[in-house]
Each structure stands twice: as C-alpha cells, then as structure tokens.
Amino acid sequence: MPDLLLELFSEEIPARMQAKAADDLRRMVTDKLVAEGLVYEGAKAFATPRRLALTVHGIPARQPDLKTERRGPKVGAPDAAVQGFLKATGLKSLDEAKIQRDPKGDFYIGLIEKPGRDAIDVLAEFLPVIIRTFPWPKSMRWGARSGKPGSLNWVRPLHAITATFGLETEEPDVVKFAVDGIETGQTTYGHRFLAPAPIQVRRFEDYEAKLLDAKVVLDPERRKDAILTDAKQLAFAQGFELVEDQTLLDEVAGLVEWPVVLMGSFEPEFLTTPGEVIRATIRNNQKCFVVSDPKTGKLASKFILVANIEATDGGKTIVAGNERVIRARLSDAKFFYETDLKTKLEDRLPKFEQIVFHEKLGTQAARIKRIERLAAEIAPLVGADVAKATRAAHLAKADLLTEVVGEFPEVQGLMGKYYALAQREDASVAAACEEHYKPQGPADRVPTDPVSVAVALADKLDTLVGFWAIDEKPTGSKDPYALRRAALGVIRLIAENALRLSLMKVAESAFAGLSVRSADAQKLPSDLLAFFADRLKVQLREQGARHDLVDAVFALGGQDDLLMIVRRVEALGKFLDTDDGKNLLAGTKRASNILSIEEKKDKRTFDGAPDAALYSLAEEKALAKAIGEVKAGAGAAVAREDFAAAMSAMAKLRPPVDAFFDKVRVNDDDPKVRENRLKLLNEIRSATRAVADFSKIQD
Predict the structure, then answer these.
(1) Dihedral (CA of 619, 620, 623, 624) sign
(2) 242-265 pLDDT, tens per residue?
(3) pTM of the full structure
C-alpha cells in the first residue's frame, strides 16, 4: 500500500514547541485518515528547527465503497414525502426501492451507494485544512506573496510544502494543493549554511537519507543521542565529567539540525561563586552544559556548547564568542553573590511587610510569622529542636529578596542555605532554608532532618489551610496555587519519615493563626482532611497499591493518621496475596452477600450478639469461638499498630468460616435459629472490620 511523506519547511521553530507540534501533526493527519476510512499501518513525525515532517505508511490507495440503507415513507404516503425520499437517496423512481415489511406497515427502503475516492484526492482535500488550522501556541501572519497579502497564520514564515504519495516500487505522485500561494512539490532544503541547495525527494527513506547528506539530522532523538555521546566523550578526553541536564538537552536538540559539540573555558576565579549559580548562568544565558572534576565532584572552569555548523576554523571563533558572553554573565553573577553576602538574611525581612502574599491572606511578613508559630508547634511532634525550627522558619524565605534569586529564581532556597551558612547559622537551620520547599514533585527528594521536616510541613500546611479558608480550592484540572502538590508533599513527608501526627489538630492550629474568617472554622479541617485522603489514594495507587484496598481501609474512617493508613494498606495487600487471605476474603464476601440479601428481604439489620444457647451444630460453636479469639487478637494487634500480626490473627477465621458454610444452612426453618445464624454472619463482618471493610475488596 502507498506511503505519505509530508514536510512543512519554514523559518526556525522555537525549540519548546517542536515536540508537541510533531505530535499534533501526526495526530491530526492520522485521525482524519481513519475518519475517511483510510486505515493506515503506522505513522511517525519528526521536528527540526526548520521543518515538521510526517511519514504515514500502509495507507489504502482508495477509500472503500460505502453502501447504506435509508428508510423512507410508508407505501401509499403522500407524493411530497415520496419525492423527498427519492431526492435524498438519488433514486430515479420507486421501482429502484425495496419494500420492507414492519409491524407498523410497509416502508420503502433506498440503497445509497457512495463510491470511494482515491486516497490522494482525499489527502489533497484535508491536508491544507490541517495546515491552516494547526494549533500553534503562538503564530504570526507575514507579508504579501505575489502582490497579495498573506493569509496563513503559522509559527514562522512557511516556505515550502513537500507532499508525496505512492508505492515503494513506483515513482510517487505529488499530493496537489496550495496554501497561501505555496504549492506542494518534491523540493526541500538542507542545512541553512552547510547545504542550502534545493533537494528533490521521493519518499521518506530517500528524504531522510538525502537530508543527512545535506547536514540535517531529522530525528530529534538521534540528535539528542549524538549531543550526549559527543559531550561525554569530549569531557572525558579532557579529564572531566559532563553534568547531564535532560531539559537542556531537549532544548539544545531543538536549536540545531547538525549538532557539533565544542568545549570552552572561563577563569577559575569564578568558581568561588556557588556551582548552582554558575550552572544556572551558563545554562540560561548560553544554553551550554557544565562539567565537573571527577576527583572533587565540583564544577570545573569549562563548559560544553553545541554549535549548528562545522566551522572552517574548527569552532575557535564560536567558542571565543561564547566564552566572551559567559565571562560577562559570570562576572555579573559573582557580583550579585558577593553583594548579597554583605546583607544578613534577617536584615532583609522588613521588606516583606510591603509585599503582599495574597490580598485575602496578608503580606509575606504575616505569612512568615504564621509559619514560625506552626513550625514551633510541629517541631516536638517530629523530633526537632523548637528553637532551631523557629529560627529556620524565620529565615527560610529571606533569600527571595536577594540579587541572585532575583536573577535566577530556580535557585531559591538553595541560596538561602548558602547565605545562612555564610553567616554561621546552625547547619540544620541552613539546610531547612533549602529543604523546606521539598518535595516539589514525585521525583524530588524528601527531607529527613527534623528541622527541615518541621518547617516544610509548616510551610505547606499554612498554604493549604490558608487557601482553603478563602475558598480557593483546586477545581477540575485547575490548581493555580499548586495545592495538590503541597498536599502530596505533606503526605510524603509524613509517610517517608514515619511520622505520627494528627493532621486535624495541626490544621486547626494553622487555621487559628489566620486573620481571615470567611470559612466555617469547624468544617475546614475535616474538609481539608478529605482532600488529603483523596491525594493519599492517588499516591498509594501510583505506588502500585490496589485501589480497592485503599478504599477498604479508608471506609473505616480514621483518616487523620496517614502513616497508619499506609501501613494498613501494605499489610492488607500482603495478606490477600496468601491463600489464607484469598479464602477468607471469599468467605467474608459470601457472608456479606447473604446478609445483604436477607437484610433487604426482612427490612432490618442483624446486629447484636448471637445467642449461644441457640447453637446446635459444632461448626456454629467453633465459628463463634474463633470470632471471639480473632476480635481480641486482631483488636490488640491493631491497637499496637502491628498490622501484620492483625492479619495473622484474621487468618485463623478461615477454617471455621469454610466449615460453617460447608455444613450449616443459614436460612433454617426455625426463625430464631435463622436470625441467630445471620447475627453470627454479621459477627464475621464485624471481626474483619478491625483491619478493613472487606466488602470494598474485589475478588
């Protein structure tokens, strides 16, 4: 079957837009092909700074013919209805229609045949529409062509469209269409400087190979691999190690079509500036990588750049130009850093009185005071020194007003640590200045120092409680204040540090420190707690916990203690992986199902203790005895939070439950015996609820 090659050749496309644009092109074209009945075999899209390309292989040469039946009016219907039916179906007369019998009468049926079109004609029809409606985040309309004003909005001026369609063994046809005066053809262009001459292409394999000869690496993943490999080898050859940066690698690969890796240097005196500042300076201003000394692990006075050209002088001029700019930028960064060191962190704090955190939540200064108070309350609960936690909370936000953070916001917190150490603050206090922002995502490290943990919890809980109090909660996909991330951060801090604290009490304390009173003071902590419960469910599911086990534990309530819930879910999962767990679950669900049916039938519940005097069978007595033992054993294990032991105690129920259902008829003819046995089944349900609501667990 034929293949499609499509290339949209333009001026430079911003690197940040390329990956999504390639994916959008593939999605839009393939969705339309399927909608037109042209089911393809495979498709792949590519992007370079100057082109979007798409190959779709295995497209049928022609659409299938479509045959549909259309029901018409009843036999004997008015002539107007008949004529409308004939016109809609394209029939010349009723002789060409069938008659279908129906309980409501006989109806005319028209067979409509729609012949399929050649795929190349279908492509020529919808491809220009896709190009005109392409969803760029930002686009532009440029000047006139042939004396006529331009009409196409595109990210950058579009220069050529290559569109070919055909079999591998034959010369492909051009998919004929035009967009804003640009007619399709088989001509593309290589590298802007190294091979700018026009290139005639036929199909994808030919196209990709000719571009490579013309110094264009079409596949962005191939460009990334080449840059990373060459950069590592160049660094290694000089005795250094590349400091890898995936985000920068993605961006740089979108800036070049023919990557050439070079190394430059800067004066060692700049290394007195923190390495993160050097890296941010070189990365942000020149899109260059830094290298480290493998012996010390510290940055070296070298950098690696990626050029888009093989220069005749071996890249000396390019390196010199980058060195000149980087030297100037590093000089600025060094000046900012040294200027910042002249002012103590606490001396910056008065400026926060003039900075509004949120119009309803007051200034940054007021927020810092709330975090200090909350950190002091949390500190004893997490094993932190109260004075150190208070001091850390006092200083943690001060670096937001420094020159370096103003220039490079991504190093906030980190610079707070450096400045705190420079003014001889306690190591835990300095660490908390950096770590109180953590964790900022699922891959981020969780602080373990108790002082950092106390301040991090205080910071996040103040944010959550504050925005809950002013009714600025996340809705749908909107979460402008990153409250979901803050809640997940609290959960990870608690779970990964094995902390025992009452979220309800801490939330109530945080709420008490607010000046706003727009929310219901009694409802807010429990409402926020439900939000934490939802986030914890997400967290546990992402870690592989079964959603039904999460629901089974949450159904018991007690969501105030997140650590206990996590441990209970883990123990329940391990228990249900055993034969005892699986069989007990089956027996418990059987008991629950019988109870549900009988409770619905009798319109009552079977609560209360069974009457031992009504036990007539050994299996009843054995089950009753086992339930009593299990309740005591599991209850005691849960009380000491030994959930593995609680599950082991639960396992003792399996044999008597199996024997009960094997030998005992629950719905006995004697109403009293029946009621007593249903109460015994309810005892099974009650006993298992010591660890989870088994009715929520799927088989």
Answers:
(1) negative
(2) 999 999 999 999 999 999 999 999
(3) 0.80
